[in-house]
Amino acid sequence: MSTCNAYGACEAHADLTPMRIERRALRADDVAIVIDYCGICHSDAHAVHNDWGSTVYPCVPGHEIVGRVSAVGPRVTRFKPGDRVAVGCLVDSCQTCPSCEDGQQQNCTQGPTATYNGRDRHTRETTLGGYSESIVVREEFVLRVPAALDMRYAGPLLCAGITVWTPLRRYGVGAGSRVAVVGLGGLGHMAVKLAVALGAQVTVITTSASKADDARALGASDVLLSKDPKAMQAAASRFDFILDTIPTKHNVNPYLMLLGRNGVLVLVGALEPLEAVHGALLVMNNRSITGSLIGGLPATQELLDFCAEHNVLPDCEIVDVHGINAAFRRMQANDVKYRFVIDMASLRDVKVD
Ligand code: NAP
Ligand code: ZN
Fold this sequence. Notes:
Helix 4 (160-170) packs across helix 5. This protein is 23% helix and 26% strand. It has helices at residues 42-48, 98-101, 151-154, 160-170, 186-197, 212-217, 229-234, 253-256, 279-283, 297-310, 324-332; strands at 2-8, 17-23, 30-40, 65-72, 84-87, 90-92, 113-114, 134-138, 143-144, 178-182, 201-206, 222-225, 239-244, 259-267, 288-291, 316-319, 339-343. The chain contains 11 helices and 17 strands. By secondary structure, it is an alpha/beta fold. The chain has 2 domains: 2-158 and 295-347, Quinone Oxidoreductase, Chain A, domain 1 (Alpha-Beta Complex), CATH 3.90.180.10; 161-291, NAD(P)-binding Rossmann-like Domain (Rossmann fold), CATH 3.40.50.720. The relative contact order is 0.16. It binds NADP nicotinamide-adenine-dinucleotide phosphate and zinc ion (ZN). Residues 41-43, 46, 159-160, 163, 183-188, 206-208, 211, 245-248, 250, 268-269, 292-294, 331, 334 line the site of NADP nicotinamide-adenine-dinucleotide phosphate. NADP nicotinamide-adenine-dinucleotide phosphate binds at residues 41-43, 46, 159-160, 163, 183-188, 206-208, 211, 245-248, 250, 268-269, 292-294, 331, 334.
């Protein structure tokens, strides 16, 4: 066992503070990682604030982890010290159920182990995430960062990226697809970049008129203001696929109306009761509404390789650990372009009482 510096929350409405945490001694199939960067996901704020009612404190968030291998257990075959690696939202699963065998560990029937606020499968202790100097992770849940990917920007691919990549691939988005992305934040801006890279024609639907130029710079061919009912009406039945990243309860009917024949709306943000869906909007045009949870390990490696090959990188603002609480507040005030990434080198010099 070892200890390291981390940043975490001790209760729901407190700021994150520095703390010392323990990392387990290496099991035979473990990889020890020195963390260089960690992205700040909106889910980190949901967890810290106990929005989903399941947070165990102290809570150390962070599931967009990028770093270097420092040591490996005796049964590890794919990694050696010095390798550039990444860890996303999952650190373990049963490995035997049909979902795990299919590479969809996020849907493990026994419940996957989340990178933070999860339960270690051996000790039952609460897992602690990437706002920390180091982490120990089972080999199967460690990803390789291709040499062509800039480590500073790779982090947000591990959650924001894979969460949008999974439904884009599941629904075969590609050349000729008419795609709309609702909400231009961490997930949304990755969805625009990736859908464009796959050849789709992309529209951004936003509450923020000020983001229109950014949306076009990211590759969108059109921008719709969701607060403009006339513009929304004029876009009725226009899209094949809509990705809805709004983080809170909202009315999906104005977006469903925009789907054409057999169109699909994929919800990834609001994990709470929604306003009632109008049945007629589903029946007309054979529309569907569905959801999607992050993605499996093979798909995440595929995404990292795709982004290296196509030079697709998130737009990041890099902050040091002293800026974490300010970054949380700005993210919740919709003031980030488009992902905060913490430079973990700044955590090494923090003195914890
Ligand atoms: P984010 O960076 O804060 O972006 C969310 C965007 O949604 C904002 O930039 C804003 O875009 C729009 N928005 C915010 N509040 C809104 C409101 N009340 N009404 C309409 N639009 C609103 O968040 P994120 O990191 O992308 O995460 C988005 C959501 O996905 C979060 O709830 C997060 O927990 C969830 N998530 C889900 C999964 C999964 O597996 N399903 C994985 C990761 C994250 P505009 O300014 O363009 O309107
Ligand atoms: Zn996340």
